[in-house]
Hints:
- By secondary structure, the chain is of the alpha+beta class.
- It is 30% helix and 26% strand.
- Helix 3 (65-86) crosses helix 4 and helix 5 (141-150) runs antiparallel to helix 6 (154-161).
Amino acid sequence: xxxxxxxxxxxxxxDAGVTPAEIAKSIGAGLYKAVCCAKINGEVVDLRTPxxxxxxxxxxxxxxxxxxxxxxxxxxxxxxxxxxxxxxxAKCAIGPAIESGxxxxxxxxxxxxxxxxxxxxxxxxKIVKSGLEISxxxxxxxxxxxxxTEMNEPYKVELAQEHTDKGENISFYKQGEFTDLCAGPHxxxxxxxxxxxxxxxxxxxxxxxxxxxxxxxxxxxxxxxxAALRRGRGAKARLAADQDPxxxxxxxx
Length: 253
């Protein structure tokens, strides 16, 4: 057994290897539903991270900056999954959370139209409604590169190859048929991202450098999709209310 210090200095005993998600669930269903990520001894971690020794664990929700980051990061993966379903030949680049929301870079044959945005938004809502669980796994660098090569994702291959010399495993997240190279953290499922609105397209370069056009992207328009939570009512209302959506724009590279 290990001792876990929680909010307010409360200490509880758990089996070694317990995860923040399991700790939240033991406290209550409401907290488990709301928690987005955690801190273990001050370090932000995924909810699936095992705790193997006496530790201080902070359970972070959307009200916390790190929790919002995890929430928006998961939203970017939902966006990428929707794009890949509708446009299988699209290539995924990066899709991080940022201060005001998130974005995802795509390499596509032609710019997304307003009609495309509506299709993507509708597909995102289908994914959320499905409630897909999100799982995490790791691969050795060589196997990670092989997987991404098989997936025909050249930008991801480039990113993975940069880590091959470090000798560290590379993490992936999977939801349904969609798998992405990603450090995380992420929510436990897609179900919490209820309300979404994509608004328009703009442009950028791969890694902000016009000289770094990938061979697979020559002659194409690359379009990152960016979404930000609308400012206004409190975070809890925004999370719950379909009428108060995540607003976004798709910007061409």
